[in-house]
Amino acid sequence: MSATPPLFLSFKHNSTRGGTEVIKCKAAVAWESNKPLVIEEIEVAPPEANEIRVKIVTTGLCHTDLYQLYDNKHPDALPTVLGHEGAGIVESVGPGVTEFQPGDKVIPLPISQCGECRFCKSGKHLKHLLFTVTRFTCRGKKVYQFMGTSTFSEYTVVHKNDLAKIDAAAPLDKVFLFGCAVSTGYGAAINSAQVTPGSTCAVFGLGAVGLAAVMGCRNAGAKKIFAVDINPDKFDRAKALGATDTINPKDYDKPVSQVLADLTNGGVDFSIECTGNVEVMRSAFEACVKGWGVSVVVGYTDLHDFASRPAQLISGRTWKGSLWGGYRPKDGVADLGKALLAKRLNLEEFISHKMTLNEVNDAIELMKKGQCIRTLMAVCPE
């Protein structure tokens, strides 16, 4: 891994702008669980009705991608192209698409927004609906599209409900974070917890999602923000994004929930868990003050149950979850874009490494070892 890798892959594409031909391009394919990804030439079919073919310019690596690769309970979903946090440019559109035009800057969405279903019409939250077909083939085999996005490919095809337009002035080497990390963490603070001015908050886990939650707490006006992680190397970034205090649970001989209770006269007003560890979920919940404390579970896992004692809830605390920051995805991307252009979001702090897609396995190793926040991977030039 070079210190200054070339910005973009040098692969050539076989494509037409009309969107009627198959594109041959490079992608990182997961053929088997627990094995490195393989850079392959794949075929990307033209978009069909209500679909858009997108040239991916930038992508990030998320723990959810690793979860699929290493803790996957569904090996029949392989081979697949991972990646669900990316940004790109519309290459072509299929019949029935009027919202997007070739050349638009866009963010693929792992959550759908159709505007017609019960969830969309509720104005509250969205169901996790995904593009269930694939337009990828490789070596004569069907290759699945992970979360309907598959941003570890130079080109991908998504449903019109799973794509958001971003301002033409938005830098794609930053706004790819809107596809997952920033929307999920920032929205957890703003929308799900509904952090209030002058409040006290604690964020557990300082990966990209947790750091976005810290930034959300700051922008919501929290007076005190505790950043909690067992890796002190992450504390400087947390402070840059708004944390007022940092806590390493390993530095104490009592539960971190008790540490926070002692420091805040009974517990924090809001806690946001961003680790996917069920024990941390409980600690975050029990760190909240009795009577009105709100704890939000953001970190994903489907491997273990989580629990606390009923008395912890009966005392008046609220324990809730947050999917994609509680945003309506298309609307959320628009809101985040406005916040970025208004200089309310500092996205530079999230990008710890810059690589290319052909270095994706190096990026995976960094994340497995906890040595990165977000790795920006360049895929195609704009």
From TrEMBL:
UniProt KW Nucleotide-binding keyword: no
Keywords associated with the record: Metal-binding, NAD, Oxidoreductase, Zinc
Gene Ontology annotations of biological process type: formaldehyde catabolic process
Gene3D superfamilies: Medium-chain alcohol dehydrogenases, catalytic domain, NAD(P)-binding Rossmann-like Domain
Cofactors, names only: Zn(2+)
InterPro entries linked to this entry: ADH-like_C (IPR013149), ADH-like_N (IPR013154), ADH_Zn_CS (IPR002328), ER (IPR020843), GroES-like_sf (IPR011032), NAD(P)-bd_dom_sf (IPR036291)
Cellular component per GO, a single term: cytosol
Pfam families given in the database record: ADH_N (PF08240), ADH_zinc_N (PF00107)
GO molecular function annotation: S-(hydroxymethyl)glutathione dehydrogenase [NAD(P)+] activity; zinc ion binding
Similarity comment text for this entry: Belongs to the zinc-containing alcohol dehydrogenase family.
The protein, known as: Enoyl reductase (ER) domain-containing protein
Organism of origin: Salarias fasciatus
Lineage: Eukaryota, Metazoa, Chordata, Craniata, Vertebrata
